Amino acid sequence: MNNSIRRTDFKSQYSSCLGWSYSQKNSINCTLCERPVHKKCLKGELGCLKCCITTIPGYLVTSYELNDSFNKRVAHYFNPYDRSAIINQIGDKTDENLLLEINHFNEISDILASCKYQQPTNVKTANKCELKVLSLNIRSLSKNMSYFKEENEFFTKFDLLCLNETNCCSSKLPNGMRDLEIDGFFEPIVQEPVRKSGKGGGLAIYINKRLCNAHDFENIDLKLDIQDNSGEFQVLKIHNVKNTSKTVVIVNFYRSPSSNARKFIEKLDSILLRLERHSKKLIAFYGDANIDLIKYDKDAIGQELIGMLENTALSKRSPSQHV
């Protein structure tokens, strides 16, 4: 006779986040409502996420929503990058010798302090004198097409949509490229993922019809190794931008976190060299390299990336140009 107890699978949906748990190790009772929730959804003595939202007014409201948009003249919330902020003056003064070592971070700090953040509803349509670009890790283009069409009024405010990690193979879509069309934009320039699975990569660029004519843009073939999955790059040249004689070069890229970061930097370096002949034009890079530059002082990969960019002819020609 077999006296062993048969183990049953555990599966439970929690009311706090409506997510599922498949292990009791991830479950804990909320200190307020006493219902089982994910451990990550418990906010200590404040209770679970649902309790926080229910009992604390404005719990999910960000400082940017409270202030509508970032303006350091009127914003009273803490900006960690603003060295003149009172709260950043707390503590002992930095040794004069150490100041020499951190001065090279001052320019970066000034850039971060002057960044402007806006809610999507407050974004204005690009005018004739600017190039407004939305860069986004979309994590499946086909699954988000309904959102793009529903929010068409917002997306048409931009001149370009540079999307990465699209996980999209147009040949596998029921209606092909027609399934990816967005009103107000030309048919997207789609580059399928390097992986055969069609996941974890892929790029797409949408060009607003007000930016140029249908015959004014072209792909630049960099003749990259299609089997190299260290990074994906899509290069587009656009002529006669907004009825002018100006030409811009757009580089859309993506690196999967699982790919070799150093090989990606080497690949990017080779692309920068190939683009030197376009250095008199505006060249703008958009994408997701999955390299954490916040840990620059301790991360060798981040240091290599910044060092490589600093040494390129492109950065020397326009060191203050940020797009």
Structural descriptors:
323 residues; 4-stranded mixed beta sheet; 21% helix; disordered C terminus; alpha+beta
Short description:
With 323 residues, the chain is α+β, with helices and mostly antiparallel strands.
Q: Can you tell me the residue ranges where pLDDT is under 50 for at least 5 consecutive residues?
A: 1-7, 315-323
- Let me know the number of strands: 12
Note the main sheet. Answer: 4 strands, mixed
Number of helices: 9
Q: How are helices and strands ordered from N to C?
A: EEEEHHHHEHHEEEEEEHEHH
Q: What do the pLDDT scores average to? A: 81
Oligomer: single chain
* SSE-based structural type: alpha+beta
Instruction: Report, as a whole number of angstroms, the end-to-end distance.
Output: 73 Å
The side-by-side strand order for the widest beta sheet comes to 5-6-8-7
Describe this structure in words.
With 323 residues, the chain is an alpha+beta fold. The chain has helices at 49-55, 63-67, 96-102, 106-113, 145-150, 152-155, 261-274, 300-310, 313-317, and strands at 12-13, 20-21, 27-29, 36-38, 133-137, 160-164, 189-191, 203-207, 217-219, 232-238, 248-254, 282-288. It has a 4-stranded mixed sheet, with no helix packed on it. Strands 9-10-11-12 form a 4-stranded mixed sheet, with no helix packed on it. Strands 1-2 form a two-stranded antiparallel ribbon. Strand 11 (248-254), helix 7 (261-274) and strand 12 form a beta-alpha-beta unit. The longest helix has 14 residues, at 261-274. The chain is globular, with a radius of gyration of 24 Å.
